[in-house]
Write a structure and sequence with these properties.
Distance between the termini: 18 Å
Number of helices: 8
Order of helices and strands: HEEEHHHHEEEEEEHEEHHEEEE
Number of domains: 2
Structural class: alpha+beta
Helix content: 25-40%
Strand content: 25-35%
Number of strands: 15
Largest sheet: 10 strands, antiparallel
Length: about 375
Amino acid sequence: MENEVALFISSLEKKYGPWNRSEALFGSTSYGQIAKNLSISNSQFSKLLYGTGTYGMYQRTLDNINRLIEREAIESAYEKSQKFVLNSKKYYTKRVLFFSLLFFFFGASATYYFISSNISFNNSLYKEHPLQEYFYPSSSKYFDSPFLNNSDVLDNCPCAGFEGRWLLFKPFKLPLPGTKKPGLYYQGKSADLILRCSNLFDGHVDTGNALMGYEHLKSEIWIDTQQENLVPKYFNSDLKIFTEQFDQITFENNDRFIKIANLSAFNVNMFEINGDSITRRAELSGRLSLDVNDLLAEEFDIDIAYITKNILGDLTKTQCKTIYNPYCDPNNLTEGSQLSYDCTYTIGEENLGLKEGYPYTKTFYLESQVYSDYISCECNK
């Protein structure tokens, strides 16, 4: 637990300030107030601080600290923008109004675009990321990106090497509760993720260590028409692992499994690089159920709307382990490089029959790298 304790303390110092052991403070904030902010008890905080917490406790609490840091960064950026608008209002009222109308127009256009894209989802698979033009425009004449310019690459190591398009390496599947009967499954089919360096968290995350990822995830809901129990054939409840028989299931090639719905979702991801480790956090922007087989759903008494909102709604709240970074030197990144996250899926309304949920692995591979030239960048482990 030595590494977990060190990471826990460094994260607290990043959020609150230097650790003052004699005064029981981080910065000017007491242990009790920090525990309250993290929604844990004082005794749990003490266990984490002095190395007697469980691995799961450290992972959950570190995620909470990072969320607080992200929220503070976003709120700070918002406050700065509001001050700028207020200070400029006297002289630039017409200009602000113009840009407000312009942003409204872009927002309305984007909404129409996504609606059109979702309608066409039934007819063909998309070839390009729906936000392609927002990140890699055909013309940069009237385009201003909030992320890195080429001239900033050397000052933003190592994230510059990670910029580009990443795709889901292989599908992953999970059992779904919500019907009170076995046999319902979720399959993550494909993901298209654009990663760009971000300065949004400057002051909280070291320059060059933050990446924002915009992910289009396509997935499916399947029903086992025989509704066979998950345990013991497909899941070992003692070892908390899926069996080889489950891994070998290919829904598309097995007549007893029928697809009930397609799902289209957009996730916003934040990747933080810390030398030899990378942490990923994701936030769902929206999910649509499409091509719903209403007759099959009715036959098996499956409420797709409930599954989409209440069951899958917690999918991005899963606990994913911080991974080892094999690309501490970003020059080792090439097209085909992978980032693989081991996660545990639990939901709020039901515990899936397990205290620690179900495990799954989500792996991205680099399909197209933006900056593949040599980067003068030291590996800071």
